[in-house]
Amino acid sequence: MNAPALARQPRRTQAERSEAMRARLATAAYEAIASGGLKGLRMRAVAEGAGVSPGALLHHFPDKNALILVAIEQALTLARDDSAAWLDQAAGDPEAVLRAMLAEFRAFFFSDRFWVAIGITIEASKDDDLFEAVRNSVAVLRKPIYAAWNERLVAEGWSPEAAMRAVRSGSAMISGAAIRRFWADVDAITTAIEEEWVAERLAQQTS
C-alpha cells in the first residue's frame, strides 16, 4: 500500500522571502551590538551572523547607517512586545497598575534592548540626519507604550494630566536608577524611593 503523499507547503512569495531575510539581518545587527557594542557592528560580522553573503546584506542594507537604524528598530520592537505582556496584567486596581508600569519600565531600562538603543542614540547624535531618523524610530516604537500606560491610569481614575505626570516621572526614576547602577549598586534607598513614589501617586489620585 502506497504511503499517502505529503501535502506540499505553499511556496513563499518573493516579498515574503525578502521580509524574512531582512528580519534575519535585523536580528544579527541587534545581536552584534548587544554583544560587542557599536564597534561590533561590522558588515561582514552581521552577514555571517545571519548566514548570508555580504552581497545579500548590501542588497537590503547598503551602508552602516541603515544597519544602525534596523538594529535600534529591532531593539525597540522586542521591548514593545515584552511591554504588551505587562500591559495585559495591569487592570482593576490603581496600585497594581502603578507597580506593573514600574516593572515594565525596569524590564526595559535594565535590559540589553535599552543599552543597544541608548548606545546607538549617543553615536547617532554626531550625525544630524541619522539622529533624526533614530528619534523617529523611538517615537514610533516607544511612545505608544507610554501612551498605553497613560490610558491605563486614566481608566483607574487619574486625570489625563496626573496620568501623564505619573508615566513621565516613573520612567525618569527607573531610567535614572538604571544609569546609576554603573557607579553604585541598587540598594535599599533605591527601593524606598520607588515605594515613596507609589505612595505619593496613590495619595494624589485619591485626594
How is the topology of this model organized?
Blueprint lengths: L13 H23 L6 H8 L3 H7 L3 H26 L4 H16 L2 H13 L3 H14 L1 H13 L4 H21 L7 H19 L1
Helix pairs in contact: 1-2, 1-4, 2-3, 4-5, 4-6, 4-7, 4-8, 5-9, 6-7, 8-9, 9-10
Can you walk through the features of this model?
This protein is mainly alpha-helical and about 210 residues long. It has two domains: about 15-60, Arc Repressor Mutant, subunit A, CATH 1.10.10; about 70-205. The protein is about 75% helix and about 0% strand. Helix 4 (about 65-90) packs parallel to helix 7, helix 5 runs parallel beside helix 9 and helix 8 (about 145-155) packs across helix 9 (about 160-180).
Low-confidence stretches: none
Assign a percent range to the helix content.
Answer: over 70%
Strand tally: 0
Described by the principal axes of the CA atoms, the overall outline is elongated
Strand count, sense and closure of the main sheet?
none
- Provide the β-strand percentage band: under 5%
Alpha-carbon Rg, integer:
21 Å
| Count of distinct structural domains | 2
Distance between the termini: 79 Å
Structural class: mainly alpha
Name its key features.
10 helices, 77% helix, 207 residues, Arc Repressor Mutant, subunit A, mainly alpha
Please outline what is shown here:
By secondary structure, this protein is mainly α. The protein has helices spanning 14-36, 43-50, 54-60, 64-89, 94-109, 112-124, 128-141, 143-155, 160-180, 188-206. The chain has two domains: 13-62, Arc Repressor Mutant, subunit A (Orthogonal Bundle); 69-206.
